[in-house]
Amino acid sequence: MIRPAPLAAIVRGEVDLAYRRWDRPRVVVGTRMRTGVGVIEVTSVERVAASRITAAQAHRAGERSLADLLRLLEVKSDKPVHRVGLR
Questions:
Q1: How far apart are CA 73 and CA 58, in angstroms?
Q2: How many helices (H) and strands (E) in the chain?
Q3: Is the pTM of this model over 0.70?
Q4: What average pLDDT does the structure give for the chain?
Q5: How far apart are CA 67 and CA 20, in angstroms?
Q6: Which helix (H) or strand (E) holds 59?
Q7: Cα(79)–Cα(49) distance, rounded to whole angstroms?
């Protein structure tokens, strides 16, 4: 679910969000995932409109810009966007 570079950024405290297009949430608050860098915990899951995502939130998700994040979210554009809080 999470690529190696964002995983490392989560450990450094630079990333605390992820955005996914799912027909329904695939994780719930409190889910703990073992990864190559340790255990990552889901702190929030909410459906959001892509148009309401800010540049600051895109940076918190590890993207260089809002445009980069929106480009990634173009895949599966028929599905809603979910914002996942991580720690």
A1: 11
A2: 3, 4
A3: yes
A4: 95
A5: 15
A6: helix 55-60
A7: 11
